[in-house]
Amino acid sequence: MSGAALGLEIVFVFFLALFLLHRYGDFKKQHRLVIIATLLAWYLCFLIVFILPLDVSTTIYNRCKLAVNSSPAESNGSYVTVAPSKQKCFKPWSYIPNGIMPIFWRVVYWTSQFLTWILLPFMQSYARSGGFSITGKIKTALIENAIYYGTYLLIFGAFLIYVAVNPNFNLQWNQLQTIGIAAANTWGLFLLVLLLGYGLVEIPRSHWNGAKRGYLLMKTYFKAAKLMTEKADAEENLEDIMEEVRKVSASIKYNHPLRKCVDTILKKCPTEYQERMGRNMDDYEDFDERQNSYPSEKSLVKLHKQVIYSVQRHRRTQVQWQILLEQAFYLEDVAKNETSATRQFVHTFHSQEPENKIIQYFYTPTVEWYWECLLRPWFYRVLAVVLATFSVVVVWSECTFFSTKPVLSLFAVFIQLAEKTYNYIYIEMACFLTIFFLSICVYSTVFRIRVFNYYYLASHHQTDAYSLLFSGMLFCRLTPPLCLNFLGLTHMDATISHRNTQPTAYTSIMGSMKVLSFIADGFYIYYPMLVVILCIATYFSLGTRCLNLLGFQQFMGDSEMTSDLIDEGKELIKREKRKRQRQEEGENRRREWKERYGNRDDSTRNRVVHTDQKESSFSETSTNRPLSKYTRSNGRTERDRIELLQDAEPLDFNADSINDDPLESDSGR
């Protein structure tokens, strides 16, 4: 089984990242390089989370081998081994041979750092650029990232000059590499604690509120009112942009040098606008550079960028509105079916998508009623209690993981108890659940946050390229400090445990943080305690209240603005519900009409066809009899028709003037 677990997890994590990217991205419309770069960033970050427990179990086994093969007082190189236990060391089922993990972590880590600090920022600017050629987009991306890259180069250059001038410093390449890693991890840890403090409280609370039907329905009404405002704003913005495109398209004719740029812009417009502009466009007029003022290429690049953004936003709001309507209708159905005496779930509207027959067979209306009305609320409550317990354990461990005598971190206690018995399955499960919960708290916050309309991860293939690349950057910057924080909580990091034991392969590539003692002994230990204050602030919704005071409407039960938006959303849902009911009633009437009169229409149609066949056969026999009588007249009529067609001449639309009187025209007959 050596290496088999590693191979299985590599394949599983790849399909997991591909599934999530398919849910948020659009493989058909977005650029392939954007999809590949985002997939690689997500894949590497998820891979670190899933492989790290295997690294922990392999390290514990290697420590056991060192302890067995050496005496209690013998030192093995730079590591001092402990007394061997009487129990024999058993090789874990997921054991990874020596030499594989250091190479694996080095490739994964430096690839992710190259993505997050160099490639993905450049691709962000490239994706948002409105240039019409690859060279133009690259030029725009380099100009936008010049300040970004220049700042880092300036800081790094100043640090190198300081080290070179100061004789007290004698840094080697490995130490410089460690300083760079420490700087990147410090930036990531600063953001990690902020996101973790929000997720530790919000995830259990969201599941607890998920058991409240009235709460979910009110929040859906609130979202409907906000989304309708955003939807109307997106439609108005699209109309304004399309009007500018129409003016530009009308001014720049077919033989203008910038016409190719205009055609590229038109291809990005919705189909209905393309047809409308195509009907109103007259490309047979030549452009006159002396009389008309034409837009420059720079203004067309800006317009192209605005078209891409407005079309994406309009499409996203339309899809989200339909999804929100389905969610609101379903929650209203749940509220109605809770008092049902038949205990069968009845839907107001039938599903627009075809359901799987296997799901229909097992998930019957009775099973759906018991799950939605009875079991699901209790399931969400139990899950919320379990998640809240995990959150309390994480907060306690974050505040006490620096204590080694006695060991106060609960995660470290669990791992050390399992290490004494060499129960590798328990070690891997405990490590996986711990780091998985930490990752869920951090990554879910990344998926939830929204920075106006610049960064927003929308499901159902509605996320733009800029947001996908930005999420990949965040994941690559958050995952390494997240793993180091996990190793600190479990005391697998020698910097925290202060034990000269064999470190994990992941810690070995990070280097010794003793080069920067103020970071290793200060920031890494005491800054995570800030998570307590952030959890308290999230519990009392201080951030939500501040945003509400600033004018950004947030869902708050004790706010008058929230009540008004809930009422507005309820009226919008009622209006859409009546519209959907009228559509279904019309379809049902047409279906009943077809079922009732369909056979009669078919029989009537058959009778008409049979009568036409009789009449045609009768006409054929009647025309065959007097054929000699009417042959000459029919031939003459045909000759007259041919002569009239030959005399017709095409009209000259290119003439300078058109005379209304045909008698005065020189060319008239």
From TrEMBL:
Keywords assigned by UniProt, alphabetized: Coiled coil, Membrane, Transmembrane, Transmembrane helix
Chain coiled-coil ranges: 224-251
UniProt keyword Coiled coil, yes or no: yes
Chief place of localization: membrane
Pfam families (UniProt xref): LMBR1
Biased composition (Polar residues): 618-634
Biased composition (Basic and acidic residues): 582-617, 635-644
Membrane-topology annotation of the record: Multi-pass membrane protein
Protein localization: Membrane
GO biological processes: adrenergic receptor signaling pathway
Alphabetized InterPro entries for the sequence: GPCR-associated_LMBR1, LMBR1-like_membr_prot
Superkingdom to which the source organism belongs: Eukaryota
Any one Gene Ontology cellular component term annotated for this protein: membrane
Disordered, as annotated region: 576-669
Segments crossing the lipid bilayer: 6-21, 33-52, 103-126, 146-165, 177-201, 378-396, 425-446, 466-489, 523-542
Comp. bias regions, Acidic residues: 658-669
Presence of the UniProt keyword Thylakoid in the record: no
Entry similarity comment: Belongs to the LIMR family.
Protein name in the entry: LMBD2 protein
Native species: Chordeiles acutipennis
